[in-house]
Amino acid sequence: MRIRSARSARCFVGSMLLCAIFSGGAGASLVTPDFAKLAKKLKPAVVNISTSKTIAPQKRQQHPTMDPFQEYFDRFFEAPRQQPFKQRNLGSGFIISDDGYIITNNHVVTGADEIKVKLSDGREFSGEVKGRDEKFDVALIKIVAKGQLPVAPLGDSDKMEVGEWVMAIGNPFGLAQTVTAGIVSAQGRVIGSGPYDDF
Asked: What is the domain partition of the chain in residue ranges?
């Protein structure tokens, strides 16, 4: 009887909680935030970053062998040599100053021979790495553009609270100007992703 009473009490509390959340009468009502205006304001400052770097072919390893014909086969039937090839990466970034400084991920630009930055209005510029932090996976690049650029101002993460709504704009898999939203689920989590692990 006690177990059944405890289950009934939990069900009752859960039902009351749901009623409190979804009730449109007395008490606070949930209001879904509208990100349309914020997205329209910030999307111009979000850029698409594409990089390329040349990958040198790996040398064929020579393994010692007792086969007397191995040298003959290596000389006349050598496998075709690999040629250098271009590796391309895609990423997102956002403009933090009207003189062309952009924040992106360090892994996007690491080792890049060429960095291309495409703005939301279709203009393309060459980017140059000005600073990087490998542990935080953050890089600062710069473009030179005429006129004033749109800017996404930096906020104060110390003022963020668990449960607050957040919006993200980026170019996942090259899909430009993608907007999504969620809530801050937790702070200060350690998930073993790196030396500065604080999620």
From this structure: 35-55+83-184
